[in-house]
Amino acid sequence: MSTPMRRAAKLLPIIALPLAEIYVISRVGGAIGAGRTFLLILAGIALGSLVIRYEGRRVLTRLRELGEQAQREGQSDPTALAAQGKEVTRAAADAGVVILGGILLIIPGFITDVLGLLCVLPFTRPLIRRLIGTVVAAKVANSPRFSGVVREARIHRPDGKIVRGEVIDPQDVRRDEDPPPPRELP
């Protein structure tokens, strides 16, 4: 796909979502009336504000508790550290998904409200978290900034088990604030 086509493909959702929202709002307004439609939109905005305030605070409090617990325990057991790291990662991902859901609820429209509710509801949140994680992992894997940075590693444990993983060399990762490498003069 050529570069102009890629740009157009990236802009398509930005243009299509508001048009779809306007269409759905007009259909709902035709079915239940403009006043009730306006009240439903306001209810979605209020619900999004409440979600960000209460649910976001709850998840962020859980993150702080996990950090304080890690500092108190000061464990050096790799298995316990890995389990705790997974729990912290899951709590952080939950916080991100809840905040995203609240923002989607605040945006006026019914499509974004449905997507926001999917992010906020406890029984659909793990599905959304996995979906976002898969998309982000695919983007990182295909990113030219990180190509050659991640390599496979095997750790041989004393009990004979082999643990496979990936090692990221921090010196190979180029950050945006890093200056570009010097150019050689002819």
Lay out the secondary structure.
Layout lengths: L2 H30 L1 H40 L4 H29 L3 H11 L4 H18 L7 E7 L5 E7 L18
Antiparallel strand pairs: 1-2
Helix pairs in contact: 1-2, 2-3, 2-4, 3-4, 3-5
Short précis:
The chain is mainly alpha-helical and 186 residues long.
In DSSP terms (H or I, runs of 4 or more residues), the helix count works out at: 5
Strands side by side in the biggest sheet: 1-2
Number of strands: 2
Low-confidence stretches: none
Note the gap between the termini. Answer: 36 Å
Q: Would you tell me the structural class of the helices and strands?
A: mainly alpha
Helical percent range? 55-70%
Major sheet details: 2 strands, antiparallel
Overall body shape:
extended
Mean pLDDT, all residues: 79
Amount of beta strand: 5-15%
Order of helices and strands: HHHHHEE
What's the gyration radius in Å? 23 Å
